[in-house]
């Protein structure tokens, strides 16, 4: 079953963050930071399925080189507290092929960002599920599968034929909750369109369980630190919360199924 996920965050110098290390991690490349001179090398990883830089039609072709793009962006963003980029992570549906997922991701990125003059750096990772990394005392909600996903870096500053523009104020609305809701809906709609086009019955939703009238609690992301401790046999507060949510959802499912089982028995007895 397809799993919906979209997360958006901002890379900010004011928080001590650098766009270079994120780009190196996403693209599995060796890249140099313009300001610090530090080298970030993620080229030893072997889980990259696809990477591409998308530019507006008028952008200089030199920006298709990732190191050049980062250097020019770092020069354009002069403030010490500059918001360098928006970073988006989306889960890709297992129901689609890699080629179909690439096309869908590019359409999503172009329609929401590139056509408005922003640069985008896409990287798709295989998200290979490793059973040995799942702690025995953390029960999965559903049977786990590989989790192909896309990391997307979007510049906060638009670009034209002369390079990055002097102002980016017109895109500050992209920091709002309203834009995030719109973005989440757009990604769900695109996936569902493809499922329908291919005759698949599966659908995804960007809305919460509560908004859809589903009486289940959403589980909370454990994160690498919690997973590491749980793998060592150390129970954590967040891990206990995860287990408690799964147990409450299990009980809800039992209660929900009882009326249906009763109705089936009555139907058979007639």
Spans of at least 5 consecutive residues with low confidence: 132-136, 140-144
- Give the spatial strand order of the biggest sheet: 1-5-7-6-4
CATH architecture of the largest domain: 2-Layer Sandwich
Assign the CATH class of the largest domain.
Answer: Alpha Beta
Q: Structural class given helices, strands, pairing?
A: alpha+beta
Which fold name is given in CATH as the topology of the largest domain? BirA Bifunctional Protein, domain 2
Number of domains: 2
The count of helical stretches stands at 6
The SSE string, one letter per element, is EHEEEHEHEEEEHHH
Shape summary: globular
- How many strands in all? 9
- The mean pLDDT is 85
Describe the structure.
This protein is an alpha+beta fold. It has two domains: 6-206, BirA Bifunctional Protein, domain 2 (2-Layer Sandwich), CATH 3.30.930; 215-270, no CATH class. It is 36% helix and 17% strand. The chain contains six helices and nine strands. The strands form three sheets. Strands 1-5-7-6-4 form a five-stranded antiparallel sheet, with helices on both faces. A two-stranded antiparallel ribbon has the order 2-3. Strands 8-9 form a two-stranded antiparallel sheet. Mean pLDDT is 85; it is low at 132-136 and 140-144.
